[in-house]
């Protein structure tokens, strides 16, 4: 498995304030650690108390770890209030919190629909709205979408729809927020090793077979790791991407480019 270097050659976020939702595990956690290595003052959120406490203990006092449910408008406002009390502005907002469920379309129920759409779409939208007054000119907003927004994914209809909505939101807000000097971009991860896969509830043999099948379709012939997505987020967060807005960057080993 490929593991990127842990030592930055040049600090890209020195003195900047970065907020990452869904930052206690997976891509969010890897991004928090990488952003901190590059000089950012980092705040992360998580919905589950146990994982929040674990992340707080592991990351240390220099990372602000807050409990916030992405589905909650009240939590979004509380997050904005807390950030305002700690920092005079925000330079990077990585809207990463999300959930994914596997289910046949004819088995879809209202509760499952609301859980995914409220977490993935409403959470990103209202968290951004709450923090928008805190975003400085030159700020970077990054939205975690998915390869499922770019290609069809069986048994993931609601997830795909939620990520497609975010893709459209990114393009619209890139235009709307440009006069404020705020860039808005998306990252679309493909097959990435993260804890979310264990939450699908698939039997081990089915999960292994699925991974083998996807690996054969990926031009680079492997799954990615969370640190590789974090490096793409770092690029979009940094001044290296100062003239880039409104894009959706696949991090998928070439899968979106293949037939």
Protein traits:
two-stranded parallel sheet; single chain; 7 helices; 7-stranded parallel beta sheet; alpha/beta; 259 residues; Rossmann fold
Structure description:
With 259 residues, the protein is an alpha/beta fold. The protein has one domain (17-196, 225-250): NAD(P)-binding Rossmann-like Domain (Rossmann fold, 3-Layer(aba) Sandwich). Helix content is 41%, strand content 18%. It contains seven helices and nine strands, in the order E-H-E-H-E-H-E-H-E-H-E-E-H-E-H-E. The strands form two sheets. Strands 3-2-1-4-5-6-9 form a seven-stranded parallel sheet, sandwiched between helices. Strands 7-8 form a two-stranded parallel ribbon.
Describe how the helices and strands are arranged.
Blueprint: E1 17-20, H1 26-37, E2 41-46, H2 49-59, E3 63-67, H3 73-86, E4 90-95, H4 110-131, E5 135-144, H5 157-177, E6 183-189, E7 192-193, H6 204-217, E8 224-225, H7 226-237, E9 248-251
Parallel strand pairs: 1-2, 1-4, 2-3, 4-5, 5-6, 6-9, 7-8
Q: Which runs of at least 5 residues are low in confidence (pLDDT < 50)?
A: none
CATH architecture: 3-Layer(aba) Sandwich
CATH class: Alpha Beta
Helix-strand makeup class: alpha/beta
- Taken together, the total number of domains comes to 1
Arrangement of strands in the largest sheet:
3-2-1-4-5-6-9
Sheet of most strands: 7 strands, parallel
Spell out the helices and strands N to C.
Answer: EHEHEHEHEHEEHEHE
Overall number of strands: 9
- Number of H- or I-type helical stretches: 7
Report how far the terminal alpha carbons are from each other.
25 Å
Compute the gyration radius: what is it? 17 Å
Determine the strand fraction and express it as a percent band: 15-25%
CATH superfamily descriptor: NAD(P)-binding Rossmann-like Domain
Question: Do you know the CATH topology?
Answer: Rossmann fold
Categorize the overall geometry. globular
